Amino acid sequence: MTGRTVRAEQVSATRELILTAAERLFAERGVNAVSNRQVSEAAGQGNNTAVGYHFGTKADLVRAIVRKHTVRIEEIRARLLAGIGDSPGVRDWADCLVRPMPEHLGRLGGPTWFARFCAQVTTDPALHQIMMEESLASPSLRQCIDGLNRCLPDLPPEVRAERGEMARHLIVHMPAERERALAEGRPTSRSNWDDAATGLADAIIGLWLAPVTPGR
Amino acid sequence: MTGRTVRAEQVSATRELILTAAERLFAERGVNAVSNRQVSEAAGQGNNTAVGYHFGTKADLVRAIVRKHTVRIEEIRARLLAGIGDSPGVRDWADCLVRPMPEHLGRLGGPTWFARFCAQVTTDPALHQIMMEESLASPSLRQCIDGLNRCLPDLPPEVRAERGEMARHLIVHMPAERERALAEGRPTSRSNWDDAATGLADAIIGLWLAPVTPGR
DNA sequence: CTTAAGGTAAGTCAAGCGCCTGACTTAAAG
DNA sequence: CTTTAAGTCAGGCGCTTGACTTACCTTAAG
């Protein structure tokens, strides 16, 4: 049996072409600088409404691209979580937060666009919420955040929230920065995604453990 | 004498209207989501080519908005630099890097848009370079970076570059995040821009002083 | 084999865009 | 006072965009 779907395979192939083309264009030029037509053409679709037909609005397309990667990233995070010992420290939780994205990019291999895509979507006022929803929908991610917070009981809640936001920004934007450097042929401070993740984790841990200047 | 310029005042008033309207729209919706026409209309100009007439391309308009604020920010940084003692430490240099933007926003008072504007421009692939040029053109900024690097002789050069990039992202995006929270009426972790700057400096210093995991 | 369904191609449409042109208004120069 | 130059306004032109319509073609079901 060839599956019951010769047709369905072609459809999902077309969807995949559109997702890939859109991810690349959005990453390189910004979401709002690319029209649905351009995405359709870049995907090799003569029909200029292919995006609308398969995905609906541009926001729906963005969500679909995010979900396509989220599965793999979740798997990586689940594996890292499973590898944590009995008395996890800040480093353990930080790794679970930081490493999934860089490791995912490394596994994709070759040139990638997803990190820059995420940076673009996260910064866009109209799409920011989509990214937040898709991210926070992950129970394993919340588990990491909770675990980390339990490791930092001395940190005032507001400062914890503040530094969590900082870490979130770095986790999104630093891989994007490295990805861009690779795309443009510029030198990078780390030779592979794994080392880049280590450098990022080092810095974020330092950020979380930094002494707090008392308010006046 | 009313100056020799009744006319010139009106012109610069129009330019100011356009700059203010554009800064606000770009900050709220993203640069690429706003047309020059919309900017002209928001500035109360019946002519739909007002932006083109006064500023040229959209990139030129963005540059003009940046420069309008850069003057004040430079003044603040110069004052902070002048207040540094004989043996400056990491905290001194970090303050000179971190505080100018939040203090500038505080002085503007009321609702502001410049931080979000900077975040949008910095993230836009087509405009990123403009922001870098305008920023690095400041000798006082370079002085801060050099001073800081002299305080961190033990940090490998690549790690120093890496963490400098992280600090840059936080300095741009964290004020933007606070500004957005204020605009949307959400609670903020700090009650004023000065305290926000302190929290940011604390974290960035921790980031710079964090131990470096040795490469394998 | 026939038929219905669904995906793709191709063309059309109104709306909005940047850009250009020309007319009007007004401050400053001769 | 006349002339000049500059800022503003009003509108048209060509192009792109998202949305819609139609025709064709392949597949899976009857």
UniProtKB/TrEMBL annotation, chains A, B:
InterPro entries reported in the protein's UniProt record: Homeodomain-like_sf (IPR009057), HTH-type_TetR-like_transc_reg (IPR050109), HTH_TetR (IPR001647), PsrA_TetR_C (IPR041586)
* Pfam (any one): TetR_C_30
Domain (PsrA tetracyclin repressor-like C-terminal) ranges: 96-204
Q: Do the record's keywords include Transcription? A: yes
Q: Where is the HTH tetR-type domain?
A: 18-65
The record ties this protein, via Gene3D superfamilies, to:
Tetracycline Repressor, domain 2
Which controlled-vocabulary keywords does the entry list?
Answer: DNA-binding, Transcription, Transcription regulation
Signal sequence range: none
* Keyword Oxidoreductase attributed: no
Under which name does UniProt file this protein? TetR family transcriptional regulator
Q: Which organism is it from?
A: Streptomyces cylindrosporus
